[in-house]
Structures are given as C-alpha cells and as structure tokens.
C-alpha cells in the first residue's frame, strides 16, 4: 500500500507578536512580512507531510481580509488540503487573536502549491492524504477545482 498521512499529522500553527519592525508606512503589518511568515508555515506543513525538502511553486488566492496592527498577536495555521503526484496544496489561514478573550478574527487566507524534492533537488512522489472529516473532504474537492484553474491558467500562459 502507498504511504499516506492524515491532515492533522502535518498541521502547523505559529504565533507572532506584531512589533514596530513589522509595520509598513501606513501603520499596519507589512504585507511582505506576512507573506514571508505564510511561506514558512506552508513549507513546514509540506515538509512534515512529505518528510523531504520542498519548494514553493505558486501561491493562489492570497486575500488580505483585514489589517493587523502593532502589539496584536497573529496566529497562522497551515494544513494540507490536496496531494497530487509530486506536489501538494497547503491552505494557510491567518488570524488576529484578542488576548482579552481568546477570540480569533481572520485577516488572511492563501493557498500554496508546494513541490517535494529528493536528495538531488528533483521532484519526488508525495504521500497520499487521509481525509477523516467532511470538512477535509470538502476542502479536497475545492482544491481539485483550484488545481484545474491553475492548470488552465498555465495552458493559457498566465
């Protein structure tokens, strides 16, 4: 049987306190800083799932829903949503967590396509994904549609 892992086995959650060096000129979290953190989380998720080195192939649906400000706590959660032959999709959600009540409000979502690499930096087969919940199955189906759109854009030169 082919090797496969559960979504929960590679889930990653990181927390950052927004500090002055993370801010842009408008007084909000610099989008480039957030993108770096998102890419790191996506990479860690993919490495945990594949147990190999990975590279970022693309980022889709990078949506900035709301800003984050100095002193706020940002929580970034990544998980595998889909696996192909040598690539996998990782969903990364970002929240501001309010320390007074623990509530989280979404500020960003992105989908990363990561490619697993062998010891010679060539694409290698990735383990399958075990879907345990209806939400995981729904995310898989949505990921298939996003993959089809990525392939169509690639064919059309976008």
Automatic annotation (TrEMBL):
Signal peptide positions (record): none
Any Pfam family matching the protein: 4HBT
SUPFAM superfamilies with a match to the protein in the record: Thioesterase/thiol ester dehydrase-isomerase
Organism: Ruminococcus turbiniformis
Keywords: Hydrolase
HotDog ACOT-type domain boundaries: 8-120
Protein name as annotated: Acyl-CoA thioesterase
Stated family: Belongs to the acyl coenzyme A hydrolase family.
């Amino acid at each position: 049987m082919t090797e496969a892992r559960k979504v929960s086995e590679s889930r990653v959650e990181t927390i950052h306190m927004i500090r002055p060096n993370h801010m842009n000129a408008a007084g909000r979290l610099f989008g480039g800083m957030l993108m770096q953190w998102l890419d790191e989380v996506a990479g860690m998720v993919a490495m945990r799932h594949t147990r190999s080195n990975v590279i970022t192939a693309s980022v889709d649906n990078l949506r900035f829903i709301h800003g984050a400000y100095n002193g706020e706590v940002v929580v970034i959660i990544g998980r595998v949503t889909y696996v192909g032959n040598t690539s996998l999709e990782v969903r990364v959600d970002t929240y501001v967590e309010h320390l007074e009540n623990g509530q989280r409000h979404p500020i960003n979502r992105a989908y990363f396509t990561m490619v697993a690499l062998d010891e010679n930096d060539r694409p290698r087969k990735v383990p399958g994904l075990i879907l345990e919940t209806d939400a995981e199955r729904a995310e898989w189906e949505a990921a298939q549609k996003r993959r089809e759109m990525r392939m169509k854009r690639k064919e059309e030169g976008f």
